[in-house]
Design a protein that fits this description.
alpha/beta; 6-stranded mixed β-sheet; 3-stranded antiparallel β-sheet; 356 residues; 14 helices; single chain
Amino acid sequence: MRFRSLWLCLAVLVTPACGDGGHETLEIIVPFREGGGSDQWARALAPFLQRQFGDSLVVQVVNIPGASGLQGGNVFALRRAPDGRSLFVSSGSNVFPALLGEPAVRYDFDDFRGIVGSPVGGVVYASAELGIGSVEELCETEALLVYGGVSPTGLDMVPLLAFELLGLDVLEILGYSGKGAARVAFEQGETNLDYQTSPAYLANVLPLVEEGTAVPLFTFGMLDGAGRVVRDPVFPELPSLADAYRTCRGTGPSGASWDAYRSVLVAGFGAQKNLWVHRDAPDGRVQGLIRAATAAVADPDFLELAERLLGGYRFYLGEQVEENFAATSRMPREATLWLVDFLTREHGVRLPERTD
């Protein structure tokens, strides 16, 4: 009877008085180490989900890092029961490998239902020691640019494409355990060029900018309703990659490489942070989770925190998560072929042969 009463408590979201002393756990799996953008996002949201559930559930963020974000996804898909008590945070780093058909991926987003999600931005910044203060100076510099990342088929694909489009000569060191580790490498002087997603940038990089050791250069931008890359609304003072391209190349971006970038931008940032549950989870629990998330992201306290920590991007819920995510697979064939060739030629990536 206790289990059934707790199930009903979640399904109808009754008051914290629900329950009789026992506590079930709602686990939020973050497939990266503490301190990165996904971790910041999940830990900002978790207390407000907890506020909705009261004593009926204990909301717990669990970090399961490994394999550039794939291990946590595999654990969620294969080792967690589809009972609505485990959730999974996706990021571009574990979305791209799934879209590209990497054999190490054992999860399928078609098997998940969306609970809540939001876009995030990304800011590229340089060490002040380079003496670079603008995109124009970045493109003209003869200094050695050293970038640290995780994987060419993860979220680093976006900055790697950006560097390619701008014609930058960058020494790219990949293999860090996460973006948090890559940021530490930047702080220790191992690299001098980095990017972070908005949550991690606002929490960990903005203080470096304020103390004068890091210089923001450009954002990856956001797609508007017409499919154009425009300035990130959270960082309107910084040029988007489209602006940076015009500065460095003297013309507007176009062609298969630009189409590939725009598609990757949607997958990596436009539909970036999403919270998923197993599709086979009981519908009552799923609807309870969506209602809890709806109330959480409308909480004035959360909105204030999100503005400060996450950048204030809008949140989408339930089916909206899946609709936005579906746009990640709409890459034109020529752009797909260009991207596969780029990853193979520049980064030695071997992808399964495509038949479409």
